[in-house]
Design a protein that fits this description.
mainly alpha, elongated, 93 residues
């Protein structure tokens, strides 16, 4: 039971790391670029609009991919979670 629990914790940690690298850090870099283009003296409105559009597309794609990934992980881990729960009930009795 404990091994199963730690296996789930390790998988959640790995998932967070993957999501962070693939989506969160990239988003922060896009926001940085957008902020830099808005404070620069030579920035024109077209560049700002283009980067805003790029950020909007990124946000939409990232949310979709993260939800898909969470759904797949949930489907994989649901049987493990139930098994851990049932095992903890049977050992408590």
């Amino acid at each position: 039971m404990i091994r199963g629990y730690f296996s789930v914790v390790a998988e959640v940690a790995r998932l967070y790391t993957d999501v962070s690298h693939q989506y969160i850090i990239l988003g922060v870099h896009l926001i940085d670029k957008l902020g830099l283009s808005q404070i620069g003296d030579d920035s024109d409105n077209l560049e700002i609009v283009r980067r805003n559009e790029e950020l909007a597309v990124y946000q939409e794609n990232a949310v979709t991919k993260i939800r898909e990934l969470a759904g797949r992980v949930r489907a994989i881990h649901e049987p493990i979670r139930k098994l851990i729960f049932l095992t903890s009930i049977s050992t408590a009795c």
